[in-house]
Amino acid sequence: MTKVAIVFHSASGTTGLLAQAVAEGVESVTGVKAMPLEIFGKDIVEGRYQNSELIAQLSSAQGVVFGSPTYMGSVSAQFKAFVDATGDLWAKQAWAGKVASGFTIGSNYSGDQLSTIQFLQVFASQHGMLWAGINLAGGYSPKGLNRLGAQSGLIAQSGDGELHQLDCDTAQYLGARVARLARLYKGEM
Ligand SMILES: Cc1cc2nc3c(=O)[nH]c(=O)nc-3n(C[C@H](O)[C@H](O)[C@H](O)COP(=O)(O)O)c2cc1C
Predict the structure, then answer these.
(1) Is 0.90 surpassed by the pTM of this model?
(2) What range(s) does the Flavodoxin-like domain occupy (predicted)?
(3) Residue 115, ligand 1, Cβ within 6 A
């Protein structure tokens, strides 16, 4: 069984809804299981993320999709604490060869969400992971997917705490894409 983890932080729930949609997309691919893992602020003690169990679970995944709300043009502090806690694994390049992707949401249409995606892309690259963006040209998808047009990862927007249906559908699409790639690359780590 191929596994794809979805590691995310969400304070008011919209990133969590995207994570759920990514997981549904992952599970739509035969032979691939989704592993949602939520980052909670209570696991941060004196600025350090302490949930080593969550981090350990990632070793069994062939793909990992990272998700964070955009806070001040980057990932949330909670997500960054998780990132910093992976330094030992970075030194061993323990995640090298896993497929990676990312998603974020902001309340503005152009609220610097791209910086968050680029942060996630650099993070995955530091770990030697294989980054998968979205192969949907903005404005050209017949179903209107990727409505905001980013291809480095999924950028979503919500001004009222509700998820736009097309962002939800695009998250499912991304989950399915990562699942297929993870299944393809399994054994090539
Ligand atoms: C501290 C803080 C900083 C934020 N910074 C941005 C930002 O830079 N750009 C943006 O578009 N939205 C920004 N937002 C809005 C959130 O990204 C948005 O409400 C998002 O849906 C929250 O995700 P969540 O529901 O998963 O917690 C910010 C919100 C907070 C609380």
Answers:
(1) yes
(2) 4-178
(3) no
- Give how many domains the chain has, as a whole number: 1
CATH of the domain at 84: 3.40.50.360
Return the structure tokens found at 51: 């949930």
Is the C-beta atom of 15 inside 6 A of ligand 1?
yes
Q: What is the ipTM of this complex?
A: 0.99
Domain extent at residue 31? 2-185
Does 71 sit in the ligand 1 pocket, CB within 6 Å? Answer: yes
Yes or no: say if 166 and 145 are a contact pair by the CB < 8 Å rule. yes
Residue 13 Cβ contacting ligand 1 at under 6 Å? yes
Give the C-alpha separation, 90 to 128, whole Å: 8
* 72-128 pLDDT per residue, tens: 999 999 999 999 999 999 999 999 999 999 999 999 999 999 999 999 999 999 999
